[in-house]
Specification:
The protein has helices spanning 80-93, 104-155, 158-162, 164-207, 242-250, 266-269, 271-280, and strands at 3-10, 13-19, 26-35, 214-222, 228-230, 233-234, 259-263, 283-287, 299-301. The chain is of the alpha+beta class.
Length: 302
Amino acid sequence: MARARDKGEKGGSKNVARTADAPGQALNVDLCFVPATHENELKLPAVSGSSGRLVVERSSEREEERQWPGQVFADESLDYSEAMLEFVNASRAENECEKPAKDPEEAEKESVRARKRAIRQEEEDLRKQRRAVREQRKLEDAAWQTLKTEQKQQQATPSALTSQGGKAQDEQWRAQRQQRRESTKQRKQEDEDWRQQRLSIRERLSLLPIVKAWIAILVITDNCTRQCLGLPLFVAGPNVTAEMVVEALRALLPPELLFLISDRGVHFTAGVFQELMRSEEFIHVLIARHRPQSKPSALYAR
C-alpha cells in the first residue's frame, strides 16, 4: 500500500502526502533556471519551470470550490499505481488555461532597467539640488558685490574713516569679509561632496549588467526516497532544447520506472519526449505548472 502522511490541520485544511511504494517506481523531474552570476545582496528572480519561463503570480482562487486531479490521492483505498492512473485520466480530461509567462531573459532585462531608472532618478534629484544651491549662491554673490562697492565708496572718503561711525563700519566690514571667507571654504567642501556623490552614481550605473547569462538545471528526484538522482546542467540556459533534456534524462532513468512526473512545459510535451516515453515504457504523468496542490506527492485536500 502506498504511504500516506497526515500533516495535520492548519486553517481548516488537511494535507495528505502520497509517495511511491518503492524506489525507482516514480520520478519527479523539473527544469529550473538560475543566473550564471549573482550578487548576494540582490534578490534572486522567481524563475522556475520546464518551459524556462518566469513564474507569474496567479490571481487568488477559492480553492475550496474547485476540483483538481490531485484529490484522487485522498482515497486511501487505492494503492499508489491505481491512484496514479486515476490522476493521469483526470489530468487529461482537464483543459486548464494558464496565463502567459515572461521570458527569463526579458525579466532580467526589466529588473536591470528598473534599477537603472531608480539610479537615474537619484541622479536627477542630485542635479536639482545642485541647481538650487547655485541659484542661492548667485544671490549671495550679488549681495557680496554690493557690499564691496559700498566699502570702496566709503574708503574714497578719508574723513569718514576718522569718525567714530567710520571705525564701526570698518569693524563691521572686517566681520563680513571673514564671514565671506568661511562661506567660500564651506562651498569648496560642498562642491567636493557633490562630485563624490555624482561619481558614486555613475560607478553604480556602469556596474549594472546589460544581460545576464542563465543556466538551466534538470532536477530529478525519486518520488519514494526523495533522493536526488541527478542535476544535469545546461549552459544554453533558456535556449535548452527538449532533445538536450531527453539525452540527459535517458542516462539516469532507473529500469524499474513506471511513472515519470513533470509539468506541462514545452520540454516535456515535445515529440522527442513522447518517443522517450514509448521506448522506455513508462507512463508520463503531467501536472499543472505553478500549482503545487496538483502534485501526486503533495495532495492538498480541503
